[in-house]
Amino acid sequence: MFTILEKRSLAEGIWLMKINAPRVAHAALPGQFVIVRATERGERIPLTIADFDAAEGSVTIVTQAIGVSTRKLCALEAGDALVDFAGPLGRPSEFVSLPLDELRRRRYLFIGGGVGTAPVYPQVKWLHDRGVEVDVIIGAKTRDMLIYTDEMRAVASHLHIATDDGSEGFKGLVTALLDELVARGARYDECVAIGPMVMMKFVALATRKHALKTTVSLNALMVDGTGMCGACRVTVGGKTRFTCVEGPEFDGHEVDFDEAMRRQGMYRSEEQRRAAIEAERAAGHVCRIGLDK
Ligand code: NAD
Ligand code: FES
Prior knowledge:
The structure is a single chain. 32% of the residues lie in helices and 30% in strands. By secondary structure, it is an alpha/beta fold. The two termini are 23 Å apart. Residues 286-293 have low confidence and may be disordered. Bound molecules: nicotinamide-adenine-dinucleotide and FE2/S2 (inorganic) cluster. FE2/S2 (inorganic) cluster (FES) binds at residues 222-225, 227-232, 242, 244. Residues 222-225, 227-232, 242, 244 line the site of FE2/S2 (inorganic) cluster.
């Protein structure tokens, strides 16, 4: 049973859950993800791993309650159990396979945007534990939506915070802060960006300007997570790639973000339709058309 060992709120609508999943915790590496189902007939939700502890047998996930399925997941409490917790899936981050002496000569910049900050953490922690210099930018709309700041401060060489409204740290988008750091003389060998697709698109455009290699983690829609259904397809370097088995991390300068965002938008309207039907049902209407339960 994938029991929820701990549940806590990180910001409005954003929940951290520590799940008992020893096999996944033992095999997990930075960059990988899991597919979870909250209930027997629930949808499969792909989530990039936000932490793992092999000794404790736990895996941490961070979820924003934005649709029907994520709201059902976030409604569960500590002591409840998830019906499925499949993983670790996808390829680990490329740096995991680099020789340690080479890694220690490199300087990384990680950029986490909003909820995407959570999956940045295990990567920075893994590098920090091996003596690699890592700077981190965390971006959020406003101070109250910042997550993982204390955890990140403990593992980052330098932590920079940006809020859109200036309520904490730099006032502006993560891309503006990135430009400012580079203008002030900061030099990096690689940037890793995880967050909303639009942020990753504009980070990739900014880093291209600075000739800075950039890796992004794509949160494409997924169904089976095994490379069979094609739901997670994206175009990278002009070729079709399946995020679930060939990603989730890709060269940010090669990703067709506009297509990826169009595909996300296509499914968002389906999710909105389901949410509307759920709301009707909650209001006492019994029409079941279009719902699987
Ligand atoms: P958000 O909209 O609050 O954005 C976070 C930060 O990203 C902003 O503060 C800003 O600095 C930057 N940003 C946003 N738009 C930008 C732009 N046009 N140019 C430059 N920078 C920009 O983030 P949110 O509401 O937490 O976003 C949630 C999204 O993150 C969801 O779509 C979710 O699917 C995605 N997500 C992705 C992953 C992943 O693995 N890639 C993981 C978790 C969540
Ligand atoms: Fe089906 Fe990737 S989720 S092929």
